[in-house]
Amino acid sequence: MAIIKRFHKAPFLIFKLFSFITGSVLSIFFTIGCTKPNNELIASYGMPVADFKVSGTVRSADQHLPIKGIAIYLSDTLDSAQAGAPVTTDSLGKYLLTADVFPNFQGKVIIHARDFDSSLNGSFLPKDTTISLPDSAFKGASGEYLGLDSENVDLYLGRSAQ
To answer: Phi then psi for 77, rounded to 5 degrees?
Structure first.
């Protein structure tokens, strides 16, 4: 009778061992497949998000001189929701924006330039510049999705008539 009880438990033990081995192998493949080259884990679910950096210089359109104190921010072309934190140009007119974007969703972002301190540097007209972000911009040389891109965009603002 004891032999029969052990025989009935054998399929359960084999199934349990098979499940343990399968789970271990799959977890190893999942870990290997979800790491960047520097062993940093990346998300492997949902809509892909990319780290996007845009930098450049803001200058006056008439004199090509750098403009300090211009607010710069990004938005998607489908809605006006701001992506990332706004920045202000430095004394050389330079800016650096960082934001998370959805590269496969629309493929474009808008860079907004606004003069909020016209008393310091003159009064400049607002400017919106649309740039394209093709899906290939976020991929490496071998076609793997890296989720990183950067662009250099110089902006030229016209003076407002006051």
So the answer is: -80, -20
Residue type, 119: S
Three-state DSSP state, 70: strand
| C-beta separation of 102 from 48 below 8 A | yes
Helix, strand, or coil (residue 147): coil
Task: Give 89: exposed, middle or buried? Use CB within 10 Å, 0-12, 13-18, 19+.
Answer: buried
CA-based nearest residue to 75, from 96, 36, 101, 48: 101
The answer to whether 90 and 143 have CB atoms below 8 angstroms apart is no
Write down the H helix ranges in 105-155: 118-121
> Coil, strand or helix: which one is 52?
strand
Enter the tokens of residue 71. Answer: 């607010």
The pLDDT profile of the chain, 162 residues, written as one tens digit per residue, is 555 555 566 677 777 877 878 877 777 766 665 555 555 555 555 556 667 788 999 999 999 999 999 999 888 766 666 777 789 999 999 999 887 766 545 567 888 999 887 666 778 888 998 888 766 666 777 777 677 777 899 999 998 876
- What is the residue whose two structure tokens read 């930098």? 55
